[in-house]
Design a protein that fits this description.
- This protein is 40% helix and 10% strand.
- It has 342 residues and is of the alpha/beta class.
- The protein has 2 domains: 2-181 and 325-341, 3-Layer(aba) Sandwich (Rossmann fold), CATH 3.40.50; 184-311, Glycogen Phosphorylase B (Rossmann fold), CATH 3.40.50.
- The chain starts with a strand and ends with a helix.
Length: 342
Amino acid sequence: MKIGLATIYKCYNFGSFYQAYGLQKHLEDLGHNVYFLPLDDLYNKKYRLRKQFNRDIKRDLFSLKSCLAYNNDWHLLKIAKKSDRDFDLIIIGSDEIWSINNKTFTPAPEYYGVNLPCEKAFCYATCVGRSGFSDFKERPDLLEGIRALSFVSARDEATGSFLKTVLNRDDIPRVLDPSFLIDWGKIEKPVSRKNYILVYTYDGSWGFSNEQIKATKDFAKSQNLPLVSVGFKNDWCDKSIAASPREFLGYLRNASFVVTDTFHGTAMSIQYKKQFISMGKGKQKVESLLDEFGLANRVCSDENPFEKIVSNPVDYTAVDKIIGEKLDFSKAFLSEKLHALK
């Protein structure tokens, strides 16, 4: 089948790339022709570029290197022409495309099943982020678009609850983020650097708090390892490196330890079987992911400090068993819905 994907696919964010390419590649491996609907969000690009530039020369140069690095990998994403409306099926998702009050991107109607180029459509692993049912009170058209979808699924607990309210039903399938669907080692770019703690968090006010920074630096000192921030210029780290999504995977593989507060930083750490600490306390989608794999004890807090987490390494034998079961369910969900709508 010729399948169109409606999601955020081309912005300066590793997670956006991983979820987009992961779903594209998995569907291609099933024998389908897959293209992203050309919903290029200029607002998203301008917003992120404004945050990346116009600060100081060193930061602007780092941001320029980051943008160029992303451009090296975007060719892997297959984008349909704007004039192409000939699709057999549309899959909506993944990522925070239903986060209607997220001001970093424009909520395209297509993300909600509205104005799609064909009638057959379902959503896979969508996420509402910090939004909820009440945030849609002025957009009933988007809720009607969701209700018209042939099938639905949720990436996290909050989105599952949202769909239960919208659809007035309890049987909402919970599936894995598309980044879990493929083997990233096949496109990973090797790097030479070794023996470091990888830090993956946004810079500035979006990143770690002062307390989290201090805890991370104290931990690095106790391990006698440098802190390397990949993807963002965090001056409190020993080194900041601009990287493409594929290069990030190389740095992730070689890291001695990972400290992150993002969803995909956590998801990819788990897939690469890294020992990691999560600074995602209070971030619903991160905590939901960790709970799903029995890893809630990786979240750093006053009651669960670095030292306690490090002394209890992740048992990936147990985690892999959970992933295997959920991966089988997620792949079966996709295959069954594709077959039902062919």
